[in-house]
Amino acid sequence: MPRARTFGRWSRPSLALWGVLVAFPSGAAADFTVCNDSFDVLNLAIAHDPGNGFVSEGWWTIAPNRCVAVIRERIQNRYVYVHATDVFNQPVLEGGADFCIDEGRFRIAGPEDCWARGHIAAPFAEVDMGQSENWTLILNLSGRLPAEDSRP
């Protein structure tokens, strides 16, 4: 019966198993990725509940035909809210949920009393991820989320 060839203290099967464990770690991270399917640069803010109440954060700048992973952790709530504007600060999405934003980079806890706390209230569109751990949202300049575009 042939013996496994060893490299130092490691056999070939052991090296292969180690390679698989490194390439695919057991605690896989979830991503919420946003892609820009328009000819304009988009500015993006999101709101989500990381487990201790909603926070809004931004800004990500997404070039045309590019994608950005905006959440790189397990998402605790099936809903993520998105606010996007073009380079002229015009809204790209129609949204019905208000969260707080700021002009510069921000992370703001809670959606309440934006003006009283020195922030700006802005409409965010709701994305229902269902039970998905990973989600890619593709934005264009239609003003609606892709799922709405396919409705009759």
Would you write up a description of this structure?
The protein is mainly β and 152 residues long. It has one domain. The protein contains 2 helices and 11 strands; from the N terminus they run E-E-H-E-E-E-E-E-E-E-E-E-H. The strands form 3 sheets. The protein has a 6-stranded antiparallel sheet with strand order 8-10-7-4-5-9, with no helix packed on it. A 3-stranded mixed sheet has the order 6-3-11, with no helix packed on it. The protein is globular, with a radius of gyration of 21 Å. The C terminus is likely disordered.
Quick gist of this model?
The protein has about 150 residues and is mainly β.
Offer a few descriptive terms.
152 residues; mainly beta; 6-stranded antiparallel sheet; 3-stranded mixed sheet; 2 helices; 11 strands; disordered C terminus
Structural class: mainly beta
For the largest beta-sheet, the strand count, sense and barrel status come to: 6 strands, antiparallel
**Estimated helix fraction:** 10-25%
Report the mean per-residue pLDDT as an integer: 79
Number of DSSP strands?
11
Strand order of the largest sheet: 8-10-7-4-5-9
Percent of residues in beta strands?
A: 35-45%
- The sequence of SSEs as H and E is EEHEEEEEEEEEH
Unreliable segments (pLDDT under 50, ≥5 consecutive)?
A: 4-28, 148-152
